[in-house]
Amino acid sequence: MLPRIESAGLDGWMVRLFDTIDEANMPWLTALVRRCEASFGDALVDLVPSYTTLLVVFDPLAMAPDDARRRLTALLADLQPDEQREDVGPRELPTWYDPSVGPELERLAERGEMTVEDVIKRHSQIEYRVFALGFAPGFAFMGRVDEHIAGPRLETPRRRVPKGSVAIAERQTSAYPLVSPGGWNLIGRTSAVLFDRHREGFSLLAVGDRVRFVPVSRAEFERLGGDTQGVEASQ
């Protein structure tokens, strides 16, 4: 039966709200995040939302585990979804789509029997929802990608994926906020600063955000401060 509260150690409870990934889950998850922040107060250490769950980490010296569970049970009893604010537009990520920064662009095009331009169009015309943050600081798991351009993760992950790389894995898409290893299909690069230690909240994106990838030329990408490291000057 859902929702269900599961043990996540001495200082955490995992609240399982759903068993399938769906954009309709987001208003419920964001509502629970907001209510936990208000209810747990200084005893709250961290909240980690995902596609279907919310991990609640608390200070066991400030709140006993059984008390934390009872508090979550009470919050779930009358939980209502957050209202969707349609007046707030999507966050736009300027993206330079090109094989020089997106080495899997052509492979995904061949796989879907379409042109590179078709892949770019299908990826950039969808408004995505941020389902979860994880893997690396500021890395937002977004969905859902057009099924015609979806592709499995690479059999052998790269040791180094450049900062800002826009990528696809199955029906998910994201952009790498920092240089890191990674096994997703790279299709472009964004100039957006996705993670900044001097920014409140650090991450540009938050769970529940709506996001659009906006195609730009290389010149515009560079003007916006995009990283062209590793790209041939003649490109």
UniProtKB/TrEMBL annotation:
It comes from Halomonas eurihalina. This is Allophanate hydrolase subunit 1. Residues 3-205 form the Carboxyltransferase domain. Keywords: ATP-binding, Hydrolase, Nucleotide-binding. One of its GO terms (molecular function) is ATP binding. InterPro entries: CT_C_D, Cyclophilin-like_dom_sf, PxpB. Pfam families: CT_C_D.
